[in-house]
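Sample entry (137 residues):
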Amino acid sequence: MSANPPQPITSHRLTIRVNYHETDGQRRVHHANYLNYFERGRVEMLRAAGTRYRELEDSGLMLVVSEMNVRYHSAAQFDDELVLTTHLVGVRKVRLSHVYQIHCGDTLIVDADSIIACVDATGRPNRLPESLLALAK
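Predicted structure, serialized as tokens:
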């Protein structure tokens, strides 16, 4: 992450308990599961902002990951309680930019940033709904 990360437009916190099936043979969270955590954070952030992802898909739109950058700092283990903070840092015509941080207590486990694109049923870029564009105002 850059020395001066973008200022959040909005943020959301989610507590996650590490399940056993999310871990590898050493009881540590398998690295791929952090991507699932980030998606949960985005979905819950949308819900908190008044947009249900399910309704977005029912309208024929999808939000797809077009870029994800992850930096691993420490390991989380089975039964740890993690706090995921999802920051929406950018809204453009067809894209949302997020920054994520997962902590276990005071320890930074992982941080990441993503670009999420809005597409229609054919996979072509589509303008974000007004409810999401309004987040930038």
